[in-house]
């Protein structure tokens, strides 16, 4: 496999940090922070599950291991989506 092939398969989205406060996502040179208060689904998940993120379409992120779908708008403006599920 050539280097150019590897470069083309590199994801444009990745989790760059998991802290005691939340999760940082880097998507297309934009950093997005998801605090656990607003995005509780990530809080008690294994690191491997949080790191496994896909982008099925531009600005739409999916974590298949925990079945979470989010968009740029939801992450940037969670106050606009008050009906998001809460942790049990």
Topology record:
Blueprint: H1 3-8, E1 13-18, E2 22-27, E3 30-35, H2 47-51, E4 54-57, E5 60-63, E6 68-71, H3 72-76
Antiparallel strand pairs: 1-2, 2-3, 4-5, 5-6
How would you describe what is shown here?
With 88 residues, the chain is an alpha+beta fold. Helices cover 18% and strands 34% of the residues. The chain is built from three helices and six strands. It has a three-stranded antiparallel beta sheet. Strands 4-5-6 form a three-stranded antiparallel beta sheet. It is globular. The N terminus is likely disordered.
Q: Classify the helix fraction into a percent range.
A: 10-25%
Strand order of the largest sheet: 1-2-3
Low-confidence stretches: 1-10
- Oligomeric description of these chains: single chain
Q: What's the order of the H and E elements?
A: HEEEHEEEH
Mean pLDDT metric: 86
Short description:
The chain is an alpha+beta fold. It is 18% helix and 34% strand. The longest helix is centred in the N-terminal third of the chain and has 6 residues, at 3-8.
């Amino acid at each position: 496999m050539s280097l150019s092939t590897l470069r083309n398969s590199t994801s444009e989205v990745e989790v760059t940090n998991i802290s005691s406060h939340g999760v940082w996502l880097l998507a297309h040179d934009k950093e997005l922070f998801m605090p656990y208060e607003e995005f509780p689904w990530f809080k008690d998940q294994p690191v491997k599950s949080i790191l496994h993120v896909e982008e099925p379409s531009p600005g739409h992120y999916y974590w298949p291991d925990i079945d979470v779908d989010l968009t740029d708008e939801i992450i940037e403006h969670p106050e606009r989506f008050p009906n998001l599920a809460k942790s049990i």
